[in-house]
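Input record (one chain):
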Amino acid sequence: MIRPFSSLVLCAVLLLSTSPTSARYIPVDDKTFTVEQIVESVILVYGTRPGLEHIRRNGVERGKIIRVGAQGTPEEANYERRFVRGENLEKDKVRLDQKLASMEYSLVYGDGKLFGIINGAAFTPRQDAASNFISQHHHSIDSLLRYKECASTITLVGKEQQKGLELYVVDLVDKEKRQTRYYISTRSLRVLWLEYEDAPASGGAPVKDTRKFLDYRLVQQTLVPYHSVLLEDGRQTQETHINTITFGAKFDESIFNRPEA
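The corresponding structure, as predicted from the sequence alone:
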């Protein structure tokens, strides 16, 4: 019988993590994998730790964001996202330029801080916009792929079956005690969706956010979902489509600097 790809990857991780004298093939049916073996296998599938660090050291992503307001009215924006990978998520640099029908503005993240730019001048983003940006940066697939670099703690909740899918369920808690739950296909070892709770900027009960990842494609030997959907308490509020993404792109890093007053 041919074993599923995910089983072969997990077995490969077991072999790599075992000393040469005791290395042996452990059938997946005879082994309960640890959370480290599962997540390290996910990293291997997405492009390997050295590969992700080298290939994704910086990049340019362009696409479309569709946001749905409380009244159900969609608002579409074209975006360009440029980034430089840091030692961990806190040290990443990210610039998100957005062009709506009525205006253009940028959000820039660096050194764990966020500011906005409009018409060449810096401004302080609304609290809800800033919170959403920071949340989506830290509650992400990247947080799982870089859990060691970020000194995060991972825990295997167990295995589940939902809608005919068999899933590994993994919890991640970062140094700031932010918790993200990942639902990972046992067959492909891809993250299919993640969940976390976000406290509204205006106060009140926490909102349960769910981000689904679709249309996975291979980009420069790394795996990227080209389509994602964000739901807040079960209501779709955002949809993102990537048009193009290029890792290793060259650009002037002064774009991350705050404009002088």
